Amino acid sequence: MELPLIPSLLDDVTVDIVARVPRSQYPTLSLVSKSFRNLIASPKLYKRRSQLGISQHRLYAVLRNRKTGEFSFYILHRKLNGYNRLVPVRSLPFMSSRGSCVSVGSKVYVFNDLSVLIFDCTSHTVQRAPDIPQRMSYKEVNVIGKKVYVIGDAFSHYVEETAWETVWQKAVTVFDTETQSWEPKPRLVKEDMAVGIGPFWSDSVVMDGKIYLKTRKKDCSSVYVPEERNWELMDEVLNSKEWEGACVIDDVLYYHDRSRKVLRAYDPKQGCWSVVNGLEEFLAVETARSRWSRTVNYGPNKLALFFPKKQYGEKMICCAEVALERRQGGEIWGKVQWCHIVIGGELFDMVKFVAVTV
Hints:
Layout: H1 11-19, H2 26-29, H3 34-40, H4 43-51, E1 57-65, E2 71-78, E3 84-88, E4 100-104, E5 107-111, E6 116-120, E7 125-129, E8 137-144, E9 147-160, E10 163-176, E11 181-182, E12 187-188, E13 201-207, E14 210-215, E15 222-225, E16 230-233, H5 236-239, E17 247-249, E18 252-257, E19 262-267, E20 272-275, H6 280-286, E21 294-297, E22 302-311, E23 314-326, E24 332-344, E25 348-357
Antiparallel strand pairs: 1-2, 1-25, 2-3, 4-5, 5-6, 6-7, 8-9, 9-10, 10-11, 10-12, 13-14, 14-15, 15-16, 17-18, 18-19, 19-20, 21-22, 22-23, 23-24
Helix pairs in contact: 1-4
InterPro entries: F-box-like_dom_sf, F-box/kelch-repeat_ARATH, F-box_dom, Kelch-typ_b-propeller, Kelch_FKB95
Organism: Raphanus sativus
Protein name: F-box/kelch-repeat protein At4g38940-like
């Protein structure tokens, strides 16, 4: 007979109490006892959180270890001293050097060369999904609704006179996370589209149900419209900035312009760029020598900004949480909630960030 989690309370009452505790405190709660550790890993707890309308955004990072070459998962975790740190998730396997990952709800989908892994972020357990139907290089992976769109280079076969020819061509392969299955046939890029083969894409985002693919060659930046299975050239205004490490919040694209030390925003409804106000001094001081930066959607009206910094002669990786507010007249203002050194930067390269809802 199992002992109650708390002797003086029914287990259902304890579950209700724990469901209301911030998710960031669960690692500490799991140290109380084996019973609490099992509760923290149980679907029952997260089902109850969902019923209560309680959810939080947790941020995961993929870091490359320069010594070993391994691509490992880390989670942004608030320590007892109040500071946020990136700590390794040792129960999750390494990601392929050619892999990519996206989040759907409380799960992270990892697309390697052919294999697909699903990380359940409520329990940090892993399961396999059906392999990618065909090998693809230089993959960009994005989510619209419950479907994952994997865009990359794939072999295409066609008949020329009497012989089979094999060529590389951009293709879109779609994975349905509800049915856990792939679409039967890949969607190929139209021959008249100026989409180059190879690692030309510098970033990709989803806005208003469309996938925007930015390239280092401006004339090749393109937009994929899944509903119409159609490709378009990117709008000139959006394509005019060298945005990279961008994120989208409420269908507005944000990125850190390192050369100008500002956070820029692009609203597709207005069709123009603007600068997020209120961050000028912070960005000028903190990111003065940053050679790279990444923004991540970190919940409603919030983003996380990652950037490198030197402190006491050592390389560090910092993270700042920025609250966003659209004021009267349409101006967007930002306010830094906190900025912490999250990990030493000597040994690691930042590869990817994903935020999940748990």
